[in-house]
C-alpha cells in the first residue's frame, strides 16, 4: 500500500493559457509544499 494520493485540485477553463495553467501549478506546489517535501524538483 502507498501513502501517495492523486487528486484534481483545480480545473482550468477552456480559455486558460499555458501561462495561466503553469501559474496554477506553481500556486498549488507552494500551497502543498510539494517542493519542500521532495515531491517536485521544479
Task: Please tell me the overall pLDDT.
Answer: 89
Number of structural units classed as domains: 1
Instruction: Indicate the radius of gyration in whole angstroms.
Output: 12 Å
The strand count comes to 0
Structural class: mainly alpha
Number of helices: 1
Q: Describe the main β-sheet briefly.
A: none
Low-confidence stretches: none
User: Assembly state here?
Assistant: single chain
Q: What portion of the residues fall into strands of 2 or more residues?
A: under 5%
Report on this structure.
- With 42 residues, this protein is an all-alpha fold.
- The chain has one domain.
- It is 36% helix and 0% strand.
- The protein is built from one helix and no strands.
- The longest helix has 15 residues, at 18-32.
- It starts with 17 loop residues before the first helix and ends in a 10-residue tail after the last helix.
- The relative contact order is 0.12.
